[in-house]
Amino acid sequence: MERKLRYLEKEIKKDGIPMLDTGENPEAPQPREMIDLEATFEKLENELREVNQNAEALKRNFLELTELKHILRKTQVFFDEHEGGLNPTESMTRALISDDSVARQTPSGPVQLGFVAGVILRERIPAFERMLWRACRGNVFLRQAEIESPLEDPSNGDNVFKSVFIIFFQGDQLKTRVKKICEGFRATLYPCPEAPADRREMAMGVMTRLEDLNTVLGQTQDHRHRVLVAAAKNIKNWFVKVRKIKAIYHTLNLFNLDVTQKCLIAECWVPVLDLETIQLALRRGTERSGSSVPPILNRMESFEDPPTYNRTNKFTHGFQVLIDSYGVATYREVNPAPYTIITFPFLFAVMFGDLGHGMIMAMFGAWMVLREKPLAAKKSDSEIWNIFFGGRYIILLMGMFSMYTGFVYNDTFSKSLNVFGSYWSVNYNASTVMSNKDLQLNPSTTDYQQYPYPIGLDPVWQVAENKIIFMNAYKMKISIIIGVFQMLFGVCLSLWNFIYFQRRISIYCEFIPQIIFLCFLFLYMVILMFVKWTNYGPSTGDVKTGPYCAPSILITFINMVLFKTNSAPAVCDAYMYSGQQAFQMLLVVVALICIPWMLFAKPALILRNKRKMHVPLNSNHHNHAMGSENGDAEAALSQAQVPPPLPPHKEEEEHDVGELFIHQGIHTIEYVLGSVSHTASYLRLWALSLAHAQLSEVLWNMVLRNGLMFEGWVGGIALYITFAIWATLTIAILVLMEGLSAFLHCLRLHWVEFQSKFYQGMGYHFQPFSFEAILDSAAQGPEE
């Protein structure tokens, strides 16, 4: 039935008839209605195929008569070239026979030539001429004329250009050879009388038959059009009905018959929260079908891993797609999508921070959100547009967060907003300006009022010469702080997984050493940043706590890991607080102890428990425990209610012990080295933020600023042109390209740096039976 509908749809589209889409969603047809539909489709298909066959035969006949008409017309021109009652073939004879041959003609008269006439495709004429010349050794005479108007090919409806030809030859042997060549080039030969009266009579008959054929063809096309117009009114609803009933029968084919052969049994996954809804649906179906046997719904135990089902709405769907692109969550593990709703646009905004660019992005996202219903109804085929529209809420949040970070950076198209007034008083006189033309901000001078700007950066930094030095130090530290806290949060989420799945060994042998290692090294480095910010400054009045003696956090951290003492000028303290060196050595030692703790503790406990229970390491329980990162041998061992088997072979046990330690060693090395590399990876927040700000400033200075240099009406024209260029480059480079770059870097930070701490992503999607999903997939990619 669907094949017949696709055939009808193809014919309707071929004629350009619009198909009525009322937006209705009819129910799946009952069996009786389905029989009627099938009869209707069968009748329509047979009628349409018969009409098409008749039309094709008529068109083929029409083409032959049209070609014959052109042959009679063009050959008449050839023959009319000879005047005075001469034989029409006499000039051809002279062309083919030399003068000596004519002188030796028999008394019976000149030699008569035969000829054939036909039609051939225009592009085959040159090759056709060459083949005739070579095969007949030049003993033929060919005349050809183009048919000006294209002819319709009845088999496919394409327009083709053809030419009429007439070939003169002498003798039956050449006639046979010429006909074979014509057949090889797929030329169509037609009878052409030699006498002018016969040609005229045939032409009149051809014209009469063409007029009759035109009338019949018109009636056939009208009948075909009426059939297709009637089908076009209902074909959309028919498609919905057929696809629904097809999906129902396809699902019913997955059912099993019970032993009595009277009942169907189905096993499926069902969300627990929807059990009552499914019971009501089954009861409603029983009532509507008039069945006297109620359906039975029982929960059953399964050894298969259930599918993962995360309920989403139009707001959270886009963020869940980002997570599922990395990997579908393992059943019942922590889903990072709710946290990603905030962290993803925030980290994007840290890299993209610009009030103006963020406003453009937010306006685009808001336009798609406010007009989502009419935009969704259009169902565009553009893949790029569908990606943008599917992530409209992500784009809206990224734009709004970028506006916030742009306000904090005080950066709007590379310019600052003086909202609260600057807390710097730049007291430059003429001599200062002449000797030092660049504005250098130093908080230790009287130019600073010793009160910070209420929100974000002071606008005077935008014009300061040492802006980049200050912004680099600020954004670099902010990036590390954000990264360490996000990684700590990811490790804490792994505790949630371990508690839910009752994996106590993983808590003691993985979570605790991981959190200690991360806190004692990298969280301590973050704390040192805050200590430096609070204890060192220009307003303390003490040299030891002034800018000159402020230590480098990076150098301090390197010396801490290498157990080296800090060096400082004579007037400065080497350490930020008393007892810092001993405390830092203690932190490093404890962090180093965590490495063998993560490496050996869990395998040792698993081996001890296995030997106590006499369970071989290659048993199913061990495979279940080691089959995934979140597997816990303790949970498997506690459920092992089986008789103790024979002890394994020694070589086999050693082999499994080696695999166990290798498996744990890989994860330990990955975490330890990943903690360092992931912390450094968060510096991309600083790097992309710096690059975005500098590109924005370069674009302003090199493009728009030039339009502001002119005065008068020339300045208006120059500003109009430069603004157009600046706006185009801003949208194309700073919003689209830089936005895509920041999006991809932000995606990497979530997938690798954040989710690797707790997210396994080894599950598979729950795909419920849904008419809507079936119809949408059929509309996007119809089956062939």
UniProtKB/TrEMBL annotation:
Protein name: V-type proton ATPase subunit a
Gene designation per UniProt: Atp6v0a1_7
UniProt record similarity statement: Belongs to the V-ATPase 116 kDa subunit family.
Membrane-protein topology: Multi-pass membrane protein
A GO BP entry: vacuolar acidification
Segments traversing the membrane: 346-370, 390-409, 478-499, 511-533, 583-601, 723-747
Location in the cell: Membrane
Function field: Essential component of the vacuolar proton pump (V-ATPase), a multimeric enzyme that catalyzes the translocation of protons across the membranes. Required for assembly and activity of the V-ATPase.
Primary location recorded for the protein, binned into one broad class: membrane
